[in-house]
Amino acid sequence: MDTAVTPVALPFRLGTRTVRCCVGMASQGCAWVRPGRSHAYPAYRRAAAFPDSALKAVTTLANHSVLWFMIAAVLASRHGVTRRAAVRGVLAIGGASFTNVLGKPLLPRRRPAADALPAWRTLSNPPTSSSFPSGHAASAAAFCTAVTLESPRAGTAVVPLAATIAHSRVHAGVNWPSDVVGGVIIGTVVALGTLRWWPHRPLTPAKARPHARTTTLPAGESLVVVTNPRSGVPPVDPTDEINELLPAARTTAMAGDVARKLETAIDGSIHAVGVAGGDGSVAAVAAVAVNRGLPLAVLPTGTLNHFARRPAQDSGLLDIRYIRAGVPFSRTRFTLAALTGTLNRSRVYVQRESPELRVRVHGPPVALATDGEVFLHGNAFEFAIGPTRLVVYRP
Hints:
alpha/beta
């Protein structure tokens, strides 16, 4: 029976020189051969195969984005920017995967001939779908871009891993370099697209005028803070962090009648009130602060934090925004404009400022709510800026 053999160049040392010779053997890799001895030392082959095994392992772990979901779980274990980075990263992976599913049938492409590569570089179960675009590269780029948008520090840790996975797809012979480039472009665009409907808001203090001096609160002394553990996306309980930053402050969780609970907590030792939550929580606590004539400390932990981020808080004007019901398909058009980031050019969305606002409802009474909290029913409502000014602490 004939046996096919492949000539392989093997380097060996003869005196002080390195000599390469060809011997008939199966393609197993190169080894050092010493003349006059009957055995060889395959150290060269083992050293060369190690990075191949590592690349195969990491690219396999990235199947179905398992690797990125594991990293997202680690990031989400801590509240704050890393948790938001995990949520944005997972959403970006979903968008990139959906785009990838649509793109492969539309742009069919044969994968590289992996059988031409050495066995230790190829995958045991290579994919059979279209080569373009690379789904692994798209998911990697989407995740690391989304994470970097929220937390640049976490991004510096995941970007090298994403680059390794992108390289591994070409190294293993399952994608062409252009497939990887296309996947990276798709993933990056999808991640940046999340900014359309979930804008990234840097933690910058609002501008407040005029300046006013009020009671100092060293380490939170003489301060009571109302916390809302259900505020934010995802919800975050800020109590532990507040206790660490302001150890002398008193904290109370928001539940039931917030105004009555806060009024009970205010005694002669309290010189200021604080709130850690979203706009609805801030509004409820601010009303108590105005009634008691106490300054307010706002710790924004909500989703949008309009109060804390408003450029000017002393304009004496209401920020009014509404949807025009008389325009055909106003709700659908508003939703599309919000998703595409074109509200400022939409004919159904109106934003203006005014010192007062009167609203009259034709029909049965309706409920009035502030950030989902219903507190009044009626047909006519009037909103205006109160005469009492509220002193607000700021950095």
